[in-house]
TrEMBL record:
Keyword Membrane carried by entry: yes
Listed name of the protein: BLOC-1-related complex subunit 7
Organism of derivation: Castilleja foliolosa
Compositional bias per record (Gly residues), positions renumbered to this chain: 1-10
InterPro entries for the chain: BORCS7
Record-level GO cellular component terms: lysosomal membrane
Amino acid sequence: MAASGGGSGSGREESAKSAVADQISQSVQSTSNILHLMLQSSPSHSQLMKLPKNLLAKTSTIKNTEMILQQMPQVISALDEHVENGLHSVPHLNTVVQLLSNMRSSQLKSLSSAQPTQQEPQVLEQHSRRTNSL
């Protein structure tokens, strides 16, 4: 989870950015090397010559992917921080749940004890009518 110390989140973010940039760079270099090898050894040279044009058509998608990958460390860090905050809130939530439960049970107790007292005047009135009629 996210460390609460100042600056450690940005260090981790920079490390993640660097790792992603390295992976992208390695992928591009590998793709370039494969294309050069294929151009040198392939009999279907004309087919391979079309490949860079196809890749060029996908430039905007590649740039969007690059932007998303650059934002990923920040998104992961923010999610990590939210999860950490949520975990710190669990004891407070347990306290609130316990308080609400106690309030509910005390309300139920007061309601159950209030019902006989409301019935007592009626019982007394009925009893006095019976006694008066005798």
